[in-house]
Amino acid sequence: MPLKNSVYYIALYFAHDSDSLDGGGSRVFDVSVNGVTYYKELSVAPAGAVIFASRWPLEGQTTLKLSPRSGSTLPPLVNGGEMFELIALGGRTLVRDATALNAIKRSFENVPVDWSGDPCMPKNYSNLTNMGLSGSLAPEVARLTALSSIWLGNNSLSGSIPDFGSLKLLESVHLEDNRFSGPFPSFFSGVPRLRELFLQNNNLTGQVPSNLLQKPGLELRTSGNPFLTQPPR
After folding, report:
1. What digits encode the pLDDT tens for the residues 81-98?
2. Of 13, 98, 116, 208, which is the most buried if we count CB atoms within 10 A?
């Protein structure tokens, strides 16, 4: 098969072939990848065998070969195999951030069953839009002081929006198409780098602060909140 230039984990699975081996035959073979020996003189025990390589650099057309050893009377036999590309995480989450994120996870309902391990890695999976989440958004989000964006749109989150006023690096907030309620959060006016604030289609009440409407460079969306009003002109 052709593979892109990367590092791979390889695992091969072998079962004991009692029907052939009980008759006095022998099955001993070498395993190689692209001509490089992977395992020598494999003889599968009655319990079966698993062999693996945790870091194998590969690129282009790739061939896995099973070669019988001299004196082996039976041909090689493999029962299954897996190959995984190893993807670098690019670091790990600070303990204080991981603690806050776990609190946020506990406030959610219907979280995916595979949410485990480092809560911030890989970075490609940091967008939580349209994930079928319900529950609420925990106030511990305010402890994630390096956050630049919050993407939780198109879920079923409810309750009030916690105070993000301490998140001075926040640029983008997407909480649209949820069930958030309570007074319109006034703290957004004090977030200096905020450029996108999408709160449409929720159940927010009160009035949109006039200084937020006048904030230069801010794209603000609040439609679909039936109990929310605009300040008088």
Report:
1. 999 988 876 667 788 888
2. 208
